[in-house]
Amino acid sequence: MSSCRTAAILSRSFLRQTVPCSLFSLTSISRTAATETSAGLFPVWIRNLSTSASSTAGLPKDKTEEKQTVLPGNGIASGHGRPTHQTSPSTVKKHHNPVNFTDKFAYWTVQALKVPTHLFFQRRHMCHAVLLETVAAVPGMVGGMLLHCKSLRRFEQSGGWIKALLEEAENERMHLMTFIELTNPKWYERALVFAVQGVFFNAYFLAYLASPKLAHRIVGYLEEEAVISYTEFLKDLDNGTVENVPAPAIAIDYWRMPQNSTLRDVVIVIRADEAHHRDLNHYASDIQFQGRELKDAPAPIGYH
User: Fold this and answer.
1) 3-class DSSP state for residue 88?
2) Source organism's superkingdom (predicted)?
């Protein structure tokens, strides 16, 4: 090692005498000498690792490399940052037929909740969407939290389901943040949101503790209704009943949409999100109806 240092010092002395300072920086030369000196002291794999890290540091991640998610019966859903999967007519109309008591209980519970909601909001799609998203953002957070605690208690992995459910909750919250940019709920609508969220959070929490497969099935049917609601929203946008205003900046940034996107484009990507959540929750319920735990079937993550 001392011989290497001596060689480096002699090299610098020689260059200082023969090479003009304007051509070479003594600092850069000393760094080069230090690099060459250390090259013989470390294994090749460490030097290669250092070179690889320095060559990629600071470079933006290639958005085209985002993971694709495959859900049963729903094909490939593209993650945000790429062209968002737009639900086809067949996917929009997808419905899980209730085949047992639990399915029927979940289905008719959702149908019963739908009646007063439609009577209250009718065709006021924006206000309906605000209430819908304040409710839809709850199940993923509750399910993810309970699975998180279960994973801690049992010292076991979740199969990606914690991440999948928390991503769902965050995505639904971003739907709400988008619509808040376009409408200002009245005081009684805010009071309704406060009451509904309080009741629904506790009810869903207890339902998930009692029967996760029932809880996921209820969410699956709720998301089916969300897809239908956004389809009706699109119809009124297309016939001019609702003004097709420019998309808010928060939506363009979150979904990485073109700058000239409109409300119609936003509703399309939100409907695609809801279709994904619908399939994910029906899938989670099906896993548990087969007598397995969620961790036994890896979660379809990477959509958001």
Assistant:
1) coil
2) Eukaryota
